Amino acid sequence: MRIDIRQTADFLLNNDGFLLLCHVSPDGDTVGSAAALARGLISIGKKVRIICGDKFTKEYDFMFEGLEMSDFEPEHIVAVDVAVPKLLGEEYCALYGDRVELCIDHHSTNDLYARKVCLEPDSASAAEVVYLILRQMNIKITPIIASCLYTGVSTDTGCFRFSNTTVRTFQIAAELAAAGADYYNINQAFFETKTKTYAALERLALEGMKFFFDDRCAVITVTRRMYEKTGSDETETAKLSNLPRQIEGVKVGVMMRELKDGGFKCSIRTHGDIDASNIAGRLSGGGHAGAAACTINADKEQATSMLLDSIRIELDADEI
Amino acid sequence: MRIDIRQTADFLLNNDGFLLLCHVSPDGDTVGSAAALARGLISIGKKVRIICGDKFTKEYDFMFEGLEMSDFEPEHIVAVDVAVPKLLGEEYCALYGDRVELCIDHHSTNDLYARKVCLEPDSASAAEVVYLILRQMNIKITPIIASCLYTGVSTDTGCFRFSNTTVRTFQIAAELAAAGADYYNINQAFFETKTKTYAALERLALEGMKFFFDDRCAVITVTRRMYEKTGSDETETAKLSNLPRQIEGVKVGVMMRELKDGGFKCSIRTHGDIDASNIAGRLSGGGHAGAAACTINADKEQATSMLLDSIRIELDADEI
Lengths: 320, 320
What we know:
- Two copies of one chain form a homodimer.
- By secondary structure, chain A is an alpha/beta fold.
- The first copy, chain A, has two domains: 5-191, inorganic pyrophosphatase (n-terminal core) (Alpha-Beta Complex); 196-319, Roll (Diaminopimelate Epimerase, Chain A, domain 1).
- Chain A is 40% helix and 17% strand.
- Chain A has twelve helices and eleven strands.
- Chain A has helices at residues 5-13, 28-43, 90-96, 126-136, 143-156, 167-178, 183-191, 196-207, 224-230, 243-246, 276-281, 300-319; strands at 18-22, 48-52, 76-80, 102-105, 116-119, 210-212, 217-222, 252-258, 264-270, 286-287, 291-296.
- In chain A, the strands form two sheets. Chain A has a six-stranded mixed β-sheet, sandwiched between helices. A five-stranded parallel β-sheet of chain A has the order 2-1-3-4-5.
- In chain A, helix 4 (126-136) runs antiparallel to helix 5 (143-156), helix 5 (143-156) runs antiparallel to helix 6 (167-178) and helix 5 runs parallel beside helix 7.
């Protein structure tokens, strides 16, 4: 059942004992939204705990400083920024996948697996939705809550550069900044800082960038061997996925990342009318119009070929 | 004489025949501010013309579409985003340098050369100041005016990432977006697009990045040979200068760019308490605390050595 912001606020106000679930490969939006919601609920005396199928990386540490999450038997399972149960990860999907009572999300691909779904597909981030819910609940947006939400807003919009950015995104960013969000340090950490290992990986990946379809498509491939050579690993690949699309004239940019057990995870970023979720969808993946992903269980050559076949269909359709 | 927003609005409302001057090496802020001001003044029937000592590059073309600037004998000279008369360029500095009646600016280094100075040093961009003036004049912020101003706001803050970004910057960005600023395409053009020649140059430059002083300093060097190899040229080097500082742990990032007639232009970017203008100052250059530049007439080895000597002094001072 779809519910709106007010109904979601009422549900949270009238209940207690929330287990908040983030999606695996956690990003700034799922972690920031969950941390902000947890802090808001705790501030009005609720019991809350956050779990995730993957470990949170250290850049999110600040969100949990001084946050006391109680040990209790969860009464209500709430998923945040999780479009489909599979994204809870194997263990938590098996445990909670069919027991999610409330899902707060912004993915148009959300399959409505939860009993109650607060879904705003026009929202650039789940953090925007959580902000509206907290406001509806009359919960004070403290500086740390504002920082958690700003992290979600900024990371899911590539610092206001992606096509999902709306007037409301800017308005909420302004309100969060006014509420004390530490936007400068957050922007520095997420957008203006590269580890030396990431910088080396980026260089290697860009050296191997290949162009297709009259340079309208650019593909970079990250292999396991590159991790060995640079000391980097898959946790550092997220930023790489945006780079091919930056090249002038490129409408479809792809990062193919070799998986531990073989096969490739493909992150697809598009410009204009090219729908990335169509490209990923034909390969059993999904996502948004401008950003989508899929996994191809094949060797590099075959995976590239399958991916290019799907991209060709979208590029051809764009020309009609 | 310093004047405030209201006095500036009154001056513009009560006069006519404005010649707007931009600074040389025009950037998004000087051009966007001047174009927005011109459009606003023309919309209430004033005669306005914009001039600049350098040609505007093609990314600013959209600001002038359909803008009819009349031919008239200027009555009032207005400089926008011009901190000192020298920045008008040789010709216009000689012609107008001592005749500027109004200067609208945000540089704390403004030397108050104009008869009336509307200076807001806490403003991240001149565009923010122009926005406030237009609002004070009750001039309608049309979508194209909003786009011109948004270009100034976003380019002067590195898309909200630089330390000059304030709560008001976000608020004004939200208001400009609501007024119809084409923020998506502006962000794409200025922040998310690399020419293939630039991308190749960036790759080459990063390959040669060198670290000094326990990796607290990173230096990239762009040689004439690299332009030949990549088809790029010096107009594409501006973005490169920010890259060395992005590496985690780097406090001083430098781009050394080989000049046509020998020697090196050094762009210095710093973090934290390291003052870039001190580093440049010892080599007869100057700038702001976080960004400065100098020219060294020496071969690569000697220039690097001179630069590192100056950097060492700042890094040593930082450790005390």
